[in-house]
Amino acid sequence: MSIPIESLSNQALGTCPPRDSAAAASGAPLNGRSYVRGETTADLERVTIPQLFRRAVSRHGSRDALVFRGSGERLSYHEFGREIDAVASGLLALGLRRGDRVGIWSPNRYEWVLTQFATARIGAILVNVNPAYRIGELEYALNKVGCKALVLTPSFKSSDYLSMILELAPELEACEPGRLDAARLPTLGCVIVTGADAGPGAFTFDEVRSLGGPAQRQRLQAIDASLSPDDAINIQFTSGTTGAPKGATLSHLNVVNNARFVTDRIRLSDADRLCIPVPLYHCFGMAMGVMGAVSKGAAMVFPGEAFEPRATLQALSEERCTAVYGVPTMFVAMLEEIESESLDLGSLRTGIMAGAPCPTEVMERITTRMNLREMTICYGMTETSPVSFQSLVDDPLDKRCATVGRVHPHVEVKIVDPDGNVVPVGERGELCTRGYAVMKGYWGDEEQTRESIVDGWMHTGDLATLDDEGFCSIVGRVKDMIIRGGENVYPREIEEFLFRHPDVSVAQVFGIPDERYGEEVCAWIIPKPGASLTEDAVREFCREQIAHYKIPRHVRIVEEIPMTISGKPQKFVMRDRMVEMLSRQAQ
Ligand code: AMP
Fold first, then answer.
1. What is the pLDDT of residues 308-366, one digit of tens each?
2. For residue 386, which atom of ligand 1 is closest to its CA?
3. Could you tell me the strand order of the sheet in which 406-407 lies?
4. For the chain, what is the largest distance between any 2 Cα atoms, rounded to a whole number of angstroms?
5. d(CA 330, ligand 1 centre) in Å
């Protein structure tokens, strides 16, 4: 049973102040309806990113701002601030202005963070380009938002970014740096390459650093005063499972406040050292990580250009980190590695696990093995800056495992049925978010924006439930649900179950089309190192333990799971491969 949101009282909708303070503080639902509103005791901060950074410098100037262990940079907030001004002046000298889009295509490197703050300093909009993108996707992304400049790393592992940009814009070979005129990238005028050798037609990052003179430096102050917290400052392409990527556009206000609330909940302070192994191109790294640390004056520790469990563990230990972020699969990988390392993780206290459901067993093991007794869970999406739910460090373990915590300050959430009616507490429905955190829109895509944000409510496409204390559980995705012979199957539930098998390291469950049942349940499983797990053994483990229709009909033992670079399993890739395998088998 559900009722239309319009028929809820103002009080239940949270538009009127008179709520009892305990309920308001906990964000508990009122009147048994799946609607919650975060507390509003602290005002939103109407500041820009440069203002936030300046505050960090004035309060914590001599403290460590960042450590890049791979390349060796170690800078205090003071030193980092000087570097930002130098690069920002260089960008002005290149002719870049407020509102211009500047792309960055690189793994986690110092220049990434420098570009993040230098672009914000002049009001240019940073465009995060996924390092896993290839030529077609890069072309789409740069043209979609009309990038004027692109900062890129020459290469990383098997990705030769420089060759790819040269293939896309062969005109680089013959142009002056900063004067590109490329047929396939009509707006791109300037390519900036990190490292010593830029190749033809491009600037090195170091050249840009020294391009700005006193005139540009003077202009920085005037620009600063002209920026508004409501300006767009960042575009992130959402890694949607289908269709073309969409450019979620965020403002200073979006990012600054979300970062602050996220790190409030883990009680981060200037005494903390936050390890950031998650990718910078994703909001987990650049917003929750970098901006969250800056909002508290904490130190940021980057273990490497991409996630490696051993390098991350070593960084945690040697840098005496107190906090760490990661998606669940990263923690699983670290737990496996930890057995063979003798490390002192005594300094660790807290962190954030997000991006995908966290298996209960993983939470229990990181609490004991990694000393992460104040670990929290976040839920959110790029389009909501990103976090809307988070547990508190002292929430009971069961709540920290089975739920994504309670609603964030200044955010409203409702859970609705397919007709848009708010469902009773405990019932499933689509999670919708409203408030300051909702993005400005998808860049250049009004129709998609209108479809996703209705009356200010961002429709997440995630299925969730709220309990009567306001704890939220993500139970699947509207589109991810498997419907087998009329029975709804939620992959998350089966994954949790499979995870209880002592030999299972990673389990992914998804549906494939089936003539008889409409869809069939499939599972891909990575066994723990050294375990000899068979497909039959997995099915046997399920037999009599879970409803027959939930038992995966097809099981595959695999060595790896296709992932996005931010660590999200790509179920659509698994689905396609599985269909192909089965059709080959049937021939
Ligand atoms: P992205 O925009 O790449 O951050 O992806 C957002 C999506 O990740 C959400 O819509 C959810 O489907 C999923 N997600 C994020 N956090 C969680 C979480 N804690 N538990 C389950 N799913 C999550």
1. 999 999 999 999 999 999 988 899 889 989 976 678 999 999 999 987 778 888 899 99
2. 4
3. 74-76, 64-68, 299-302, 273-275, 323-326, 350-354, 374-380, 387-390, 406-407
4. 75
5. 15
